[in-house]
Amino acid sequence: MRAVVVKAFGGPETVEIVETAVPEPGPGQVRIKVAASAVNPVDAAYRAGVLVPLPEGGLLGLGWDVAGTVDAAGEGTPFTTGAEVIALAYGPAPLKAQAEYVVVDASAVAPAPASVDAVHAATVPLNTLTAAQALDLPGLAPGSTLLVTGAAGAVGGYAVQLAHRDGITVVALAGADDEELVRSFGADRFVERGAVTGPFDAVLDAAVIGADALAYVKDGGDYVGVIPQAGPPSVRGIRVQVVEVAADGARLAELVKLVDQGALTPRVARTYPLEQAADAHTRLAEGGVRGRLVLVP
What is the rounded CA–CA span in Å between residue 266 and residue 63? Predict the structure, then answer.
């Protein structure tokens, strides 16, 4: 099968397609025939060598998001062959979701949304789980105020929708051209970059502003970051927490229900054939992508 990997760290030019054996699922695992896999900033970070070393053997697979069909199931798994699913392929491995087949733990898998195609479904796992798990950290009550930075992005957009659904007063920080978009997600207020006034009960920093975002949080409030081990030092009693996304098929299944109810909006910016994975990385590096770039084997 074909798979997207890097053998050396660097820019988009380091992204390669290799031919390798189809992986076999073990007990508690399923093999998914991949229909689509999104390209996320974490893939660019892996490619650049920011987060993890090369695994033993010299191959680092790319791709955290997968939508496809169960092709084989190990002992003790609840999914049967032919089931349409999505999953989070968590963590570093020689082979990941940007491939023709991927093996994942069954506990990371959820039934695919019925309301969208596989390309859109492939944008759901990583970003919805990150947004939902980030919102768990401050434990905001209905009526609390939350500033979401990067509200037009994938994680930020889902965070706006989820927080709005929970009765939180959401203020969306984004570029002027994105006001209509973030208001469509349910933002109660829109704030253009450079015009933020607070303080807010909490900030979910999807744009990775970092320490400067603490100025928007009230004394003793909450700052939630989205890059593990990269939260700014606390000031004024602000509780600084950073989400580290966890694979959770049961939670993902609940988020899929919200997609099917129209409460969450998967967005696709563009698709690329698998062999053009390096081109997708180049486009991601250019910035300004609204929605996800998706690879199709």
Answer: 17
- State the CATH number of the domain containing residue 165: 3.40.50.720
Do 117 and 131 belong to one domain? no
Q: Same structural domain for residues 32 and 119?
A: yes
The pLDDT tens digits of the residues spanning 268-282 come to: 999 999 999 999 999
Is residue 22 scored above 90 in pLDDT? yes
Question: For the ranges 44-48, 62-66, 132-136, 225-229, which has the lowest average pLDDT?
Answer: 225-229
Which letter, b or e, does each residue of 25-46 get, where b requires 16 or more Cβ atoms within 10 Å of its Cβ?
beeebbbbbbbbbbbbbbbbeb
Which residues form the domain of 228?
127-242
Is residue 171's pLDDT more than 90?
Answer: yes
Distance CA 113, CA 103 (A): 20
Q: Which residues pair with 203 in a beta bridge?
A: 147, 223
User: 54 or 10: which carries more pLDDT confidence?
Assistant: 10
Same domain, 134 and 104: no
* Residue type for position 5: V
**Selected residue with higher pLDDT from 56 and 142:** 142
Could you give the maximum distance between any two Cα atoms of the chain, in Å? Answer: 56
Task: Check whether residue 134 and residue 229 sit in a common domain.
Answer: yes
Query: Cα separation of 277 and 261, whole Å?
Result: 32
**2-6 and 239-242 strand pairing:** unpaired
Separation CA 254–CA 126 (nearest Å): 14
Q: Are residues 194 and 272 in the same domain?
A: no
- The phi, psi pair for 212, rounded to 5°, reads -65, -25
Q: What is the distance between the alpha carbons of residues 179 and 188, in angstroms, rounded to a whole number?
A: 11
